[in-house]
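Morning, I've got a small favour to ask if you have a moment. I'm working through a protein record and want to make sense of it properly. The fold is given in discrete form, as structure tokens running alongside the sequence. Can you walk me through what the tokens say about the fold? Thanks so much in advance, here it is:
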Amino acid sequence: MSPLRTILVPIDFSEASQHALGPAVELATREHATVVLLHVLSHLPDIPARLSFNIHFEVPEYRQALHAAALDQLRQLDAALPQGPVRQVRVEHGDPADEIVRIAAEIDADLIVMSTHGRRGFGHLLYGSVTERVVRLAPCSVLCVRPKGRPRQGQ
């Protein structure tokens, strides 16, 4: 395996996604790699630019506010991590799996470290799996981290 230079860690701010940070930072420290924390804001539905519910609501302003809030959360998460490898934070907009794959290619990531929410049955059928799509489409290896306390299939 060639040395790791860039590790992409998608974060949706769930406990499961944050669980992937430990292994990613540990690997990056050992390999002297850069960690890129990524949050993807899902597409907002197509709605008129201005809605009226006794107040005026600007969609572009709302998107900017969501972007700023996500960036702030990523920076706080980054600041709470122990000193170590160089880290960058990014917020993108779009389909989470597609954006993770696109950013991995753009930054020439050597590894994506992400967790799965561990949905099964109807929940998995209904929501699908971002992790599964990333594993299928990624331009690099993907390390899937099992959420804490989640038993293996069949246990």
